[in-house]
Amino acid sequence: MKILMLTPYLPYPLWSGGQIRTFNLLKNLSQKHQITLFSFIREEKELHYLTILKEYCDEVKVFFKRPPWSLTSLILSGITYYPLVVCLYLNRELKDNLKEVISRKHFDLIHAETFYVMPNIPAGNIPIILAEQTIEYLVYRHYTQKVANLAKKLLMNWDVAKIYFWEKRFWKKARRVIAMSQSDKELMMERVTDLKVDLVPNGVDTEFFSFREKPRTGQVKTILFVGNFKWLQNREAVTFLVEKVWPQIRQELGQKVRLWIVGKHLPPNIVSSAKDQITLSDDINDIRLAYRKSDVLLAPIYGPGGTRYKILESMATGVPVVTTTTGIEGLDAQNFRDAVIADDAQNLAALTVKVLTDKNLYHNLAENGRTLVENKFSWKTIAQKLDSIYQKAV
Predict the structure, then answer these.
(1) Mutual orientation of helices 379-393 and 17-29 as an angle, nearest 10°?
(2) More confident residue, 42 or 78
(3) Residue 307 is part of a domain; what is its CATH number?
(4) Which residues constitute the domain of residue 162?
(5) pLDDT tens across 75-85, in order?
(6) Which residues form the Glycosyltransferase subfamily 4-like N-terminal domain (predicted)?
(7) Domain-located, residue 213
(8) Is 52 within a domain?
């Protein structure tokens, strides 16, 4: 099958959840399909990664995304009904190239990642699959609720309302829509009753993230948080961790524990907190190193949407997970079997201490977490499911 894939980011290097997902799906789907990839990039240095992607794609073309606060983006957001997140990706060069490649290659299917690239796709009869990695208006609404400045809050609420409208409109334009979690799927079908929504969760490369047979030994235990801090939910989670949860853990375990925060674009408030046994790393090229050198992943996530790669990767490597109800959403994990789940700072701290000090619980969580990802979240299984949805759409 000839497939045109349109993404709002280059699927390599694997620095974000979206990149991890798209790259692994490309790698698996390319064994059966001929894929043309059109992607947005932020910087010229990303051009170096095209060689890697061409191993899996018939053709790759890239286009520059405008910065969020560029004058053009702000003007477009002001004079059109599109929200700012759509205006960042409105691109005349991309539209012209899409028309040309569609007439030249006669695609069977268009796969669009995220609704905000959809306005660039020319009208036609090619079936469109729209994959929504999160329900965007929920993400922005969650963030807007925390804004104190009234004028800024009113502007952001107006933008959230536009996201809500266009998200729904583009769902309707697609032949089928893909959700990452059951809760996202249910909300989509509630908003559009006759919408054809398929559940295709995020996954993990179970060969790349091999299982650690034995837990680390040593007097000092390491609590890990992993994230790309451009993502609002990760900034919120790590701030809550450092300010509310970590002090309680440290009070209980003293010098026997340290907190390790790993990820790109570390926020200034976290950089300034790098003391009291807190270590920051933004230059780890192989994230497996972080999991191998840690004892537990602590992820106090409260922002909605998607499936958390850090949790799947941690489970795959045999590092027990302590997280929130929101953080574990979509993984069908059971509390105290596959992961430990709590929603307030006191319980998150107490349960993290329990995982670190209870050898039987630690062993069971490590074994069961690995079994869960092997059975339900390997990329090979997920790609096969996506392929069956392609067949249905065509």
Answers:
(1) 70
(2) 42
(3) 3.40.50.2000
(4) 2-203+378-393
(5) 888 888 999 99
(6) 16-207
(7) no
(8) yes
